[in-house]
């Protein structure tokens, strides 16, 4: 399995196939979904809430939320907790949020790594510092986007989000990881504009969710490291972001 990049300590692959086939081989699996699951999880967990990932548009979500004494997030809304990061800024400490998404949540649920982390641009430095402290090999999974027919599509925002983490890691990096690092270095001084003109960003702006792009483009402002434990992301460890 040549695409596994097993000879490197820091690896990068895309979407569902990567998690299905490679996550069990990595000490750490980092799910990077900048627009918007990873950013939403960072904001919610940073506020002291717990996030329970759930499969997108599957039955039983309301019943599951009730059983877990949790809020069920809407798909995207200005007025209630949802997959919109801006809608979660006021989420209270101690809240539990069931958060369905077709990319980040779905990938989190099938990860077989001993340690699964949600990441974005906001917490890139904190996640990288956490990984350096923990040691062990790292699989970064850029979530990507799914087309209507279910095919995985390249998502530039997840590529540079992974690169923001990779550039702080001091271990052997695969060529794919180095490419993401280089892309981030080119984009890092213009992140909001870069995200604005991605396919996902343009769609969000057209729907009136410009605030989500602004939040997602903020680099290294969060010290939250959301770690998946018993089906929920919690702020597993906080380190000073640089």
From TrEMBL:
Entry keyword Magnesium:
yes
Listed cofactors: Mg(2+)
Looking at the record's lineage, which domain of life comes first? Bacteria
What Gene3D superfamilies has UniProt attached to this entry?
ComB-like
Which EC numbers characterise this protein's activity in its record? 3.1.3.71
Keywords noted in UniProt:
Hydrolase, Magnesium
Catalytic reaction annotation: (2R)-O-phospho-3-sulfolactate + H2O = (2R)-3-sulfolactate + phosphate
Annotated coiled-coil positions are: none
Signal sequence span per UniProt? none
Q: Does the keyword Magnesium apply?
A: yes
Question: Tell me, what's a Pfam family for it?
Answer: 2-ph_phosp
Family named by the database record: Belongs to the ComB family.
Protein name per UniProt: Probable 2-phosphosulfolactate phosphatase
Organism per entry: Chromobacterium indicum
